[in-house]
Amino acid sequence: MNDKINSNDTSQNGIDRFTTSFSTSTFEWTESIAQALVVMVAVLAFIFRIATVDGTSMLNTLHDKDKVFILKWNYTPRSGDVVVITKGVQYDKPLVKRAIATEGQTLSIDFDNNTVIVDGTTLKEPYILEPMWRKGDGVIPKVIPKGHTFVMGDNRNNSMDSRYKEIGVIPNENIVGKATHIVFPLFRFGAIK
Question: What is the pLDDT, as a whole number, of residue 143?
Fold first, then answer.
């Protein structure tokens, strides 16, 4: 009879060890998942994010509904970068445009010859869709003010950008970051040039 009691005690100890091991394992998995979620939220909030292109102002570089990867961490706008902007002067939607000139740079647009001149050098712009004929209704500054960036879409004749009062020259704090890659649709996946 003592043998039966001992075998029951042994089997109970095995169940207790299994329950404790299962509980510990479950807690460890839950803790690992929670830590991964915290890291993922921090990365998405401070380092990069994904944005959706709205419209055709960046054709042929970007298409309507493309999803782009945005690098945010410690970003300073540079001429030629494709940037995502939180808003324009009077425009409430996020914008995706190309930075043409940044603070302190001189800027001139020759609409007759379809050229953009930054710091006395004519830009080579293989990315534009067609010759530019729309001038806009805003003031194009000769020198970009401190802390601002002048932006235009690659589809210049179908782009609300810094040439228009509604958008204006963009304060750098309104630039979310640089769009570096198309991530969706998958057949368009790749670096943005």
Answer: 98
Does the annotation count 142 as an active-site position? no
Domain extent listing, the chain: 1-46, 51-191
Tell me, yes or no, if 67 is annotated catalytic: no
- Looking at 57, 79, 159, 162, which residue is catalytic? 57
Q: How confident is the model at residue 38 (pLDDT cuts 50, 70, 90)?
A: confident
Instruction: Quote the pLDDT of residue 93.
Output: 72
Q: Catalytic one among 97, 159, 162, 178?
A: 97
Domain made up of 51-191: CATH architecture? Ribbon (2.10)
Residue 110 bridge partners (DSSP): 115
Cα(143)–Cα(107) distance, rounded to whole angstroms?
A: 6
Whether the Cβ atoms of residue 85 and residue 70 lie closer than 8 Å to each other? no
Residue 183, pLDDT score = 95
